[in-house]
Amino acid sequence: MNLRHSISDGCNYTSRLLDPAQPGWNALLARPRNLGVFRQGHIKSMSEQLQNCNITLMSVASIATLHSSLQQRQAAGGIKTMMLKQEAAVNDAITATNDQSAEVGAKLEALTLAEPNEGETDADQTGATR
Predict the structure, then answer these.
(1) How far apart are CA 26 and CA 86, in angstroms?
(2) How far is CA 79 from CA 24, 40, 63, 85, 90, in A?
(3) Which segments carry the region annotation Disordered (predicted)?
(4) What's the pTM?
């Protein structure tokens, strides 16, 4: 196809390019269809690659979610174990406090019921227990 400008025929570059009577026009029509810069085969190939990338990214996101879930489960298990240990320590402290309270109550009762010594009055004995 001759696309050079010639003054004698009065055609410019654009009119020659768009004129189907020009030589080589059929060769243009016979070429595989292009969509913009890319051919259909290239676009299909890129589309398949993008689908594969999309599947891979979705798999990575799913694995990351699973990993996070497992870490949270392990952390929750650790917290539960720690709370059970603290609960046991608190229960032991409560038991010890109850035992001491019962012991003090028994001593107080023993002091209250004791007979007054010689020369002590009931007021002295009551004052000693307070």
Answers:
(1) 89
(2) 80, 58, 24, 10, 16
(3) 110-130
(4) 0.41
Structural domain boundaries in the chain: 1-31, 32-114
Closest CA to 114 of 123, 101, 125: 125
The label of the residue with tokens 């009551």 reads 126
Question: Which of 30, 4, 27, 34 lies closest to 16, judged by CA?
Answer: 4
Q: Give me the count of residues in the chain.
A: 130
For residues 116 and 124, the answer to whether their CB atoms sit within 8 Å is yes
Query: DSSP 3-state assignment of 4?
Result: coil
| Residues 57/62/65/67 CA torsion (nearest 10 deg) | -100
Predicted confidence (pLDDT) per residue in 76-92, tens digit: 999 999 999 999 999 99
Where does residue 11 rank: exposed (0-12), middle (13-18), buried (19+ CB within 10 A)? Answer: middle
Of 130, 84, 87, 90, give the one whose Cα is nearest residue 111. Answer: 130
Q: Checking DSSP bridges between strand 34-35 and strand 38-39, what pairing results, if any?
A: antiparallel
- pLDDT tens digits for 33-82? 555 666 888 888 999 999 999 999 999 999 999 999 999 999 999 999 99
